[in-house]
Specification:
single chain, mainly alpha, Helix Hairpins, Four Helix Bundle (Hemerythrin (Met), subunit A), 2 domains, about 75% helix, Cytochrome c oxidase subunit 3, transmembrane helix, translocase, Cyt_c_oxidase_su3_a-hlx
Length: about 260
Amino acid sequence: MKGAVLHPYHLVDPSPWPYIGSCGALFVTIGSVMYFHYSQPWIMYMGMATIVFTMFVWWRDVIREATYQGHHTQRVKLGLKYGMLLFIASEVLFFFSFFWAFFHSSLAPTIELGAVWPPQGISPLNPFSVPLLNTAILLSSGATVTWAHHAIISGKRRDAILGLTVTVVLGLIFTALQAMEYYEAPFAISDSVYGSTFFVATGFHGIHVIVGTTFLAVCLGRLIAQQYTRHHHFGFEAASWYWHFVDVVWLFLYVCIYWWGS
């Protein structure tokens, strides 16, 4: 039969969004340089707006392909799962480099640092105040996202919406507390290798929390719009995997940098 599909794979139609998104990223890069050197932020803002626009329209197309057009077959979903697992593995290696830099400097502090860790003149944050509270918040969010996942599988839509809403709120609270912690920190990113490793490692984790919260917020919108079923909700599964990865990274950050490193 003419036009019949005889395979379970999804051959994606040509799309302008990768090109437009890459142009937005280029504008952000060039605009950031202009903003840093000449205080001209409009190109950077234009690039950010382009990226946000690309996110919305690209996600819209993927949702149409997955939910309404039936392109995400079991074979396609298996490929998506492998892709997400490989992405998380790459993120593990990304954070491994930060821990490598931290332990390289902290296990054998040089004479320039006073031969001690934390370096001379650095007053580290109390690990049993805001960092401990953030640990409890993030672990609680891991429990609520698991609750939401089991509720979706069980067909309990109301419980799934409640669990996912609580998870998103906890993610926002975590971000707000970390921003407050940064604002009140007695050291800066320029304060020796301690400041640079601390803010780079915890800052990139904070960015991942923002990305994960956005990921889960999109899933919450799709859940409210009844776009997930008991057997077709890989978008949520990918978001929950990513969120659990963020949880585990934070545990290592808390134990190594906040607690042991102080």
